[in-house]
Design brief:
By secondary structure, the protein is α/β, with parallel strands linked by helices. It has one domain: HUPs (Rossmann fold). The protein is 37% helix and 12% strand. It is built from eight helices and five strands. Strands 3-2-1-4-5 form a five-stranded parallel sheet, sandwiched between helices. The longest helix is centred in the middle third of the chain and has 15 residues, at 100-114.
Length: 228
C-alpha cells in the first residue's frame, strides 16, 4: 500500500483531505501540530478523527509559534468576528499565522523521507480562504519543487508530490465530499475562538465560512455553537 503523510488539524478541510487520501488507496500517516494556537480543541479532535478514519499512525508535533506572535491565533490579538463575506475576502486576515504552512509542510516532508513516502496531503483551499498566501496553488507548486531539490530522497530520485485536493473546492463542495466519503463531521472542529467548554463561537471567519458551506450544501452542521 502507498504511504502518505497527511496534515491533520482536526478541522473540516484537513479531515476531508485525509478521507480522500485513504479513498485513493494511501496508508495515512497523520501529522498534527500544537503550535501555541488558541483553538487547541482541534488537537483533541484530530486524535479522534485519525482513529475514526483509520490512520496508520498519528503524531503530534509540538512547536511554539507564540515566540514570534504576529497572528490572532498565536498572540494577544482579537479574533475578528461577524465580518461580511466581502470583508473576509479582502486582503490577508489577522488570523494568518506567518509561514505556518511552510513550517508544517517542512515537518511533513521530514517524516515522509523517513517512512518512506513520496506523497504529502494538505487541506488548503484557495476559494474561501483566498487571502492566505500559503493556501494558493503557486505556493503548493513551489514547495513541491523545494521538496525535490532540498532532500536526500529527492536528489536520489524519489519524487515527492504535494497533494492539495480541495484547493479549488468551495466550502459546500467540501461538505458534500466529506459526506460522500462517510466522514463523521461531528468530530471536526474549525472555530478560531472556541468557548472554554468547546463550543464554536459562530462568529469568527472560520465559523461563518463553515456555516455558509453547510447551508449551501443543504446539510445541518452537527457541531454545537455558542451563537449561530
Amino acid at each position: 500500500m502507498k504511504r502518505a503523510v497527511v496534515l491533520l488539524s482536526g478541522g473540516l478541510d484537513s479531515t476531508t483531505t485525509m478521507a480522500i487520501a485513504i479513498a485513493q488507496g494511501y496508508e495515512a500517516y497523520a501529522l498534527s501540530f500544537d503550535y501555541g494556537q488558541r483553538h487547541q480543541i482541534e488537537i483533541d479532535a484530530a486524535s479522534r478523527i485519525a482513529e475514526s478514519l483509520g490512520a496508520k499512525e498519528h503524531r503530534l508535533a509540538k512547536i511554539d509559534m507564540r515566540m514570534f506572535g504576529g497572528s490572532a491565533l498565536t498572540d494577544n490579538v482579537g479574533v475578528p468576528k461577524n465580518r461580511s463575506e466581502t470583508e473576509i475576502a479582502d486582503g490577508i486576515p489577522v488570523t494568518y499565522v506567518p509561514a505556518r504552512n511552510t513550517v508544517f509542510l517542512a515537518f511533513a516532508l521530514g517524516w515522509a523521507e523517513i517512512i518512506p513516502a513520496a506523497d504529502i496531503f494538505i487541506g488548503v483551499n484557495a476559494i474561501d480562504y483566498g487571502g492566505y498566501p500559503d493556501c494558493r496553488p503557486e505556493f503548493i507548486e513551489a514547495f513541491e519543487t523545494l521538496a525535490n531539490l532540498g532532500t536526500k530522497a529527492g536528489v536520489e530520485g524519489r519524487r515527492f508530490q504535494i497533494h492539495a485536493p480541495l484547493i479549488k473546492f468551495s466550502k459546500a463542495e467540501i461538505v458534500r465530499k466529506a459526506l460522500e466519503l462517510d466522514v463523521d463531521l461531528s468530530l471536526t472542529r474549525t472555530c478560531y475562538d472556541p468557548s472554554p467548554t468547546g463550543l464554536a463561537c459562530g462568529e469568527c471567519d472560520s465559523c461563518l465560512l463553515r456555516l455558509k458551506g453547510f447551508r449551501e450544501a443543504g446539510i445541518e452542521d452537527p457541531i454545537r455553537y455558542a451563537r449561530k
